[in-house]
Design goal:
This protein has helices at 3-36, 43-53, 66-88, 95-120, 122-127, 130-144, 147-153, 162-182, 196-201. By secondary structure, it is mainly α.
Length: 202
């Protein structure tokens, strides 16, 4: 695989990590904001779950169908993170990337909630809290700005140059030759202590 393909894979993995992080923060914002308003924290996930289970999934409690309402944004927005990283290419972390991520999050809100879900599931368009959803997409977009940091952590270490390999091999040979030339240490006989034999004869 060429350098371009390796770079695209690295960017895709970094975008997946950033998108997953943003999705978790977005869902966390849904839960926390609903609890602060003294509503059930599962209202938005259950509303999204109606896309799969119909009106019976829209309730205030946690049910088995709630998992689908949590998995849907996690999958969609993690994939959107891959797209954002591939579009952004190799960039350093900074305010420009964060601002671009915030704009991307707002556009994704308009596309996914305003167009796709509006046609696929009108209940989402009717009952979704628009301000809460918009704020969560801003949080998601800001998190997307972290993909350059994830990408830099996926860069493989540089391969050693031939000159460095020659130096290491040459140094190892010189060290082994010095050790072999030193030879074994000669054996020294113990010197008898004066007076020892006289004491034994006595």
């Amino acid at each position: 695989m060429g350098p371009t393909g390796q770079r695209d894979i690295r960017l895709a993995l970094a975008g997946l990590q950033a998108g997953c992080l943003g999705s978790i923060l977005m869902i966390g914002w849904w839960l926390a904001a609903e609890m602060l308003q003294r509503y059930s924290p599962w209202m938005v996930p259950n509303l999204l779950a109606t896309s799969f289970y119909g009106e019976r999934a829209y309730g205030s409690g946690f049910a088995s169908s709630t998992w689908s309402g949590l998995a849907l944004p996690l999958a969609v927005y993690s994939g959107a993170g891959i797209l954002f990283a591939l579009l952004g290419r190799e960039r350093k972390s900074g305010a420009v990337v964060v601002l671009a991520g915030a704009v991307f999050g707002v556009l994704l809100d308009w596309f996914f909630f305003g167009l796709v879900l509006r046609r696929m599931n009108p209940m989402v368009h009717i009952y979704s809290p628009d301000r809460l959803i918009l704020a969560s997409h801003l949080i998601y977009g800001i998190a997307l700005g972290s993909y350059p940091g994830f990408a830099s952590g996926l860069v493989p270490p540089p391969e050693p140059q031939p000159s460095e390999l020659n130096q290491e091999v040459g140094g190892g040979i010189a060290q082994s030759s010095d050790e072999s030339s030193a030879g074994p240490v000669p054996f020294q006989e113990a010197t008898p202590v004066p007076g020892t034999s006289a004491d034994q004869d006595a």
